[in-house]
Amino acid sequence: MKNSIESMDRLVNSFTKLPAVGQKTAERYAYAVINMNENDVKEFANNLLQAKQNIKFCKICGNWSEDDVCSICASRSSETICVVKEPKDVVVMERVRNYNGTYHVLHGVLNPLQGKGPDDIRIKELLERVNNGNVKEIIMATNSDVEGEATSMYIARLLKPLGIKVTRLAQGISMGSDIEYADEVTLSRALQDRREI
Amino acid sequence: MKNSIESMDRLVNSFTKLPAVGQKTAERYAYAVINMNENDVKEFANNLLQAKQNIKFCKICGNWSEDDVCSICASRSSETICVVKEPKDVVVMERVRNYNGTYHVLHGVLNPLQGKGPDDIRIKELLERVNNGNVKEIIMATNSDVEGEATSMYIARLLKPLGIKVTRLAQGISMGSDIEYADEVTLSRALQDRREI
Question: How many angstroms separate the CA atoms of B125 and B121, rounded?
Fold first, then answer.
């Protein structure tokens, strides 16, 4: 547009690089930024730079960390390792508060259609941890979709010959949800994994 | 959370200040920022600062501008002024491409419930423009909601005694939409404003 404002356009353009943010949403965000007070904007810009600068990956588990080894790896035993797809899954798992093992972040799952094979995610690093340490159990906590399941099966088959116990998060009806709205696959899994009460 | 990462939390917190962004979305954005390359993040931070620093309001119409007077006010005649609620509405109107007048941005609408009265939006400035210039027509292009309609009526009543023609954007069925899905108020307005073909 002829009469658009250059600094505005550039800011909108930056916002559209965020996931699921289109032109309209980006414009709304930019509009909000212009209406913020100057200190908030400075802080925002600074937080962007700081986060990008300070956050690296823990060299053991691959989770985000400000140090070489993250606080979880530094303070807990790796007898049990919970394998997740992304760093944000660690945050979710930590909310549960009754897991005391460490994590292993794969940074992706196997996805042949997108060309993601075993070498593209952190499977090699997991095997190294298993070979070097006294790991007793691996809990697979990848998502319950096709790729997550496939990744979980793949890793389980690699680890079983090493004498490691490999488990998977239970699948079934969500707590508090109506059976009426559960899909067939979930119901069938819930029936299969039913337990005595 | 005990093991959360400080720079991450601060970035997430900054993102939650954007409109309609909650904790989950903010985390997703922050995650995307960490995965961006460093130059993109630097550019993002810079664009934030630049936009906030460079963009002020046009002293005539109140629209965003990098100069004291925006490019529209500087280049067009103010015989016709289109009154809108926010700067982004100017962008929308400009997309139409067959409007050649100037704008007046109110920066809000009358909303007694939120304590917004005539002195809180740029009505005084509009009256000044009308008194000082050779304005012939004011087109009210506030939103079609209760507040927008009320603001439009209020301004129309102030301007009519000055001999100014005040018009309102036509209301009716959206182009390409089914009559079946039009609400009663819109249909009633469309019927009332029907025109010969």
Answer: 9
* Structure tokens, A89: 């899954």
pTM above threshold 0.90: no
Query: How sure is the predictor about B4, in pLDDT bands with cuts at 50, 70 and 90?
Result: low
Check if the beta carbon of residue A24 is closer than 8 Å to that of residue B72: no
Whether A81 contacts A139, CB under 8 Å: yes
- Look up the ipTM and state it: 0.72
A43 phi and psi angles, rounded to 5 deg: -65, -40
| Closest CB from B32, B55, B94 relative to A18 | B32
Chain A environment of B45 (Cβ under 8 Å):
45-46, 48-49
Amino acid found at A140: M
Shortest alpha-carbon distance between residue B190 and chain A (Å): 28
Amino acid making up residue A173: I
Closest of A189, A137, A182 to residue A164, by C-alpha = A137
Distance CA A62, CA A72 (A): 11
